[in-house]
């Protein structure tokens, strides 16, 4: 059933600027879906005759929003790092744990040891929980393989998730996450391997290339070379930038016109002007700051500067083992200064912008019919009632999904 007429929508978030306001809210609305795409949106009293015979789904006065687009995750990984989480809560820093062999290296070992079926099984289970909580599109990075075989394995697992669930997957190659321990004394050799071997091999299996450009990871110069090679192979550039310090990553994102610059916890005004001029999307992670117990991301500064802001889970076993975008919206409003309207936009249209998905994150004719019926009469309930699952029904490409 990819044709549907949703009626009785008490409040509809369209994200259509022509409807007024940031969210383009409509009340007492209806949405017609044909062939998995939005065919018509408007007042229920004005449904055109051609759509009145479609199978009807009465929303009973509830709110409907676009599906969430979680535009930055590290969903494929082996093991977990609950022990490191406890160490951090006792006062050790993420950077110190990382510098002493823990952190990402720890997950690289567990991921290499896990094997395909266990990785796929665990990733599908995580993605299923995401879908149930309203995420209809998820970006998934590699980055815990750090050799050709395991990076390709991770990308393959990420892509396969979409064979098991009604969720769209956007795979991103993150071979430059950290330098793996076997290249400890030859980082130049690892960068060369990424550029000359891994990127050409990953090109057919990923849409984007990401680099962790920070203290303890990759320098600006290394990241520039890696992303330049990636672009030559058709992979759009994105960056983990300025997460741990003033790494120069944000400036590099502006210089190369990166699709997104993610984290951005440490910024100077010049970084912000550069990102705005480059049209780069700022992807922020309120739950990472919460988990690391650091200041929230500078969402207000970026938004007020006119930069498109997305929020995402960054779901990973280290800094944010969070699968639920409803929680991210709530934490973004409660800690990072976004209004409920802004956070809702950032979790839907903002995420789609960060992945260059023109047909996602809005409810307008021609867009994908990825919709959420809430167990509430307004989108406001999501930040207002953190911790309660308020997604009553997920509709993916026009089909109600059993979750
Ligand atoms: O986005 N900063 C780099 N990567 C992840 C953390 C990965 C990990 O700790 O395993 C992040 O926070
Ligand atoms: Fe990340």
The number of E-state strands comes to 16
- Discrete helix count: 15
> Please, what is the oligomeric state?
single chain
The gross shape turns out to be globular
From the helix content, strand content and strand pairing, which structural class follows?
Answer: alpha/beta
Largest sheet: 8 strands, mixed
Roughly what fraction of the amino acids lie in strands?
A: 15-25%
- CATH topology name of the largest domain, in short, is TIM Barrel
Listed once per kind, the bound small molecules are:
N-(iminomethyl)-L-glutamic acid, fe (iii) ion
Question: Overall mean pLDDT score?
Answer: 97
CATH class (first level) name of the largest domain: Alpha Beta
Helix fraction by DSSP (H/I, runs of at least 4): 25-40%
Q: At CATH's second level, what is the architecture of the largest domain?
A: Alpha-Beta Barrel
**Low-pLDDT windows of residues:** none
Structural notes for this entry:
The chain has 403 residues and is an alpha/beta fold. The protein folds into 2 domains: 4-66 and 362-402, Roll (Urease, subunit C, domain 1), CATH 2.30.40; 68-354, TIM Barrel, CATH 3.20.20. The chain is 37% helix and 22% strand. The protein has 15 helices and 16 strands. Strands 1, 2, 3, 4, 5, 14, 15 and 16 form an 8-stranded mixed beta sheet that branches. An 8-stranded parallel beta sheet has the order 6-7-8-9-10-11-12-13. The chain is globular, with a radius of gyration of 21 Å. The mean pLDDT is 97. N-(iminomethyl)-L-glutamic acid binds next to α3.
């Amino acid at each position: 059933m990819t044709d549907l007429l949703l009626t009785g929508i008490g409040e509809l978030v369209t994200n259509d600027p022509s409807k007024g306001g940031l969210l383009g809210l409509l009340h007492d609305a209806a949405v017609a879906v044909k062939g998995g795409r939005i065919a018509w949106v408007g007042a229920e009293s004005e449904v055109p005759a051609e759509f009145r015979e479609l199978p009807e789904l009465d929303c009973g006065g509830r709110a409907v929003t676009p599906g969430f687009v979680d535009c930055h995750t590290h969903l494929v990984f082996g093991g977990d790092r609950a022990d490191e989480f406890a160490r951090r809560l006792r006062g050790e820093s993420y950077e110190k744990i990382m510098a002493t062999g823990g952190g990402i290296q720890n997950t690289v070992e567990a991921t290499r040891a896990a094997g395909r079926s266990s990785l796929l099984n665990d990733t599908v289970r995580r993605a299923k929980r995401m879908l149930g909580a309203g995420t209809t599109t998820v970006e998934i990075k590699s980055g815990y393989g750090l050799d050709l075989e395991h990076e390709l394995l991770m990308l393959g697992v990420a892509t396969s998730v979409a064979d098991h669930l009604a969720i769209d997957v956007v795979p991103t190659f993150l071979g430059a996450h950290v330098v793996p321990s076997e290249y400890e004394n030859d980082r130049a050799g690892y960068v060369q391997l990424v550029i000359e071997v891994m990127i050409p091999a990953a090109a057919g299996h990923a849409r984007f290339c990401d680099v962790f450009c920070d203290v303890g990871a990759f320098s600006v110069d290394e990241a520039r070379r890696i992303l330049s090679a990636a672009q030559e192979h058709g992979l759009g550039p994105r960056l983990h930038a300025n997460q741990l310090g003033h790494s120069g990553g944000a400036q590099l994102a502006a210089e190369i016109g990166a699709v997104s610059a993610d984290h951005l916890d440490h910024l100077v005004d010049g970084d912000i002007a550069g990102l705005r001029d480059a049209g780069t999307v700022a992807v922020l992670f309120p739950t990472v700051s919460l988990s690391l117990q650091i200041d929230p991301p500078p969402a207000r500064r970026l938004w007020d500067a006119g930069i498109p802001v997305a929020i995402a889970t960054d779901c990973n076993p280290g800094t944010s083992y969070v699968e639920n975008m409803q929680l991210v919206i709530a934490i973004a409003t409660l800690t990072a200064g976004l209004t409920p309207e802004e956070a809702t936009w950032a979790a839907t249209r903002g995420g789609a912008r960060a992945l260059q998905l023109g047909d996602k994150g809005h409810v307008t004719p021609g867009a994908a019919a990825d919709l959420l019926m809430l167990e509430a009469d307004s989108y406001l309930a999501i930040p207002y009632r953190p911790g309660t699952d308020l997604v009553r029904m997920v509709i993916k490409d026009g089909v109600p999904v059993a979750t």
